[in-house]
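quick one before i forget lol
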Amino acid sequence: MGKIRKISLGDVFAIKIENTDYYYFGRVLFDVKEQYKEKIENHNYLDWYGKSVLIETYKTISKTPEISEFDVILDATFVSKKNLLSEDISIIRNIPINPKKVSFPEVFQNVHTVGILFSLGELAPLTNFDTKYVDKTKVFPTLGNMYYIQLATLDYSGRRDLIEDQEDIMENYFKDSDLRNFPKIRKEIYENIGEDPDMSYYDLALKHGFDLARFY
């Protein structure tokens, strides 16, 4: 099988787990370069993620590159498209994306001329926090590492037996890249910006004038 050089929105992929006979699976939810062409001047992080795709992974771990159940185990992580395609990867089908179900990593951005922003997708509302508060987590825009995405997918799927180096198992694989891993702090952030943390990204963005569906 030849090297995969292109991957598209909605593609479901299988990645061979090194030194095993197993595969894990995921799907491309958002391709920043291909979809985000109308730039919004609100300091959101999408330009920073310009060569990245947003992916999810699934609970299914299989000895064949086939999947029939799509229980999400790892939700919405940005990875370099180049790094994703450098894996032992195959595309097995395409499933159209429902934009109402897409979410994005949540991070801080410290913009010198503006202040501390809470960034997710197209949104970047200003907060009243200072750098001391942000230093509690130091969660800023960060690209997902394919190795740790594999580890987290296996770990959360109950397949630690397939993790070759058991010392690499972590309690929190995304503590530096997504505030959704800090429920208490996340609640404080949403209170600070006056929004509901249980509202979907789609509805929150729509409330602020950004309809994610326009990209699909």
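fyi The radius of gyration is 18 Å.
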